[in-house]
Design goal:
single chain; about 270 residues; mainly alpha; Four Helix Bundle (Hemerythrin (Met), subunit A); Helix Hairpins; 2 domains; elongated
Length: about 270
């Protein structure tokens, strides 16, 4: 019974069914944000929401039944449990804010779709490398903030009047948002200010941020190689087991043939 349940919940058809339920539930939660839709189809949307929740709970219970203690060893199962638990909690009184958190169920796509799981695993694996880049980016922002405050604080106090304001302005500049307007305003008094802005953008946007991308891409490659190695090990183990089973069957057949020959030789007239 447990093996049959495992085959059902791990089958591609069942996974596609769960993805479809998640997408339908996401669509209904989005439609609930339109008052005129709630006036016309509110009960239907609530019914679909409850049915989706019951399906998610049943899926988790089936996984607990199949995997037993192994259920808690899979981080994605814990992730799904937390998301579904938020939806199960009563959304009344002081916990009414939890009703808005029902949209978190859409994140279950991450645990259901293998390609999304691969991306998230790569991001988590890239965190140690990203920490060093974050420190580097923080140093660049801090140095640039102190320099901009001292150089342009008197000229553009609304952008560089203090260190916190300068850090926010430089962060905005790093994202490419309206930095030409800020630079032109400063360049009215400091014509050479374009050098500071160009160097800062080159360092942050084209160097540090590209390092982020390089670390993530490298982590995704490592994740892909790890999956390929795991698959190769599984195939090798399966083939070895199949070969061992075939050899055992051949040995049994040889034994049976030998016994038949012996019986025939004993029973034949001399």
């Amino acid at each position: 019974m447990r093996e049959r349940a495992r085959l059902i919940i791990e089958s591609p058809r069942f996974q596609r069914f769960v993805v479809a339920v998640i997408l339908i539930n996401a669509a209904t939660l989005g439609l609930e944000t339109f008052p005129w839709v709630m006036e016309r189809a509110g009960p239907v949307l609530n019914l679909v929401d409850h049915v989706a929740l019951y399906i998610f709970v049943a899926e988790l219970l089936a996984k607990v039944y199949v995997h037993r203690s192994g259920f808690v060893r899979d981080p994605w199962n814990i992730f799904d449990t937390l998301i579904v638990a938020v939806a199960v909690l009563p959304a009344t009184g002081g916990l009414s804010v939890l009703r808005a958190l029902r949209i978190l169920r859409v994140l279950r796509l991450v645990s259901v779709v293998p390609s999304l799981r691969r991306v998230v695993n790569a991001l988590l694996a890239a965190m140690p490398g990203m920490s060093s880049i974050v420190v580097l980016l923080t140093l660049v922002l801090y140095v640039g903030g102190v320099m901009a405050t001292k150089l342009y604080g008197g000229t553009a106090p609304e952008h560089f009047g203090s260190l916190p304001v300068s850090l926010f302005t430089l962060f905005q500049t790093m994202t490419g948002e309206a930095w030409p307007d800020i630079a032109r305003e400063v360049m009215v008094t400091h014509p050479s200010a374009w050098i500071f802005f160009v160097v800062f953008i080159l360092l942050c946007s084209f160097v540090v941020l590209n390092l982020f991308m390089a670390v993530v891409v490298s982590a995704m490659d490592d994740e892909k190689h790890a999956e390929e190695e795991t698959l190769a090990e599984v195939v090798e183990t399966t083939s070895a087991q199949a070969t061992g089973a075939i050899m055992a069957e051949l040995a049994a057949l040889r034994t049976e043939v030998r016994q038949l020959r012996e019986e025939m030789s004993v029973g034949s007239p001399r």
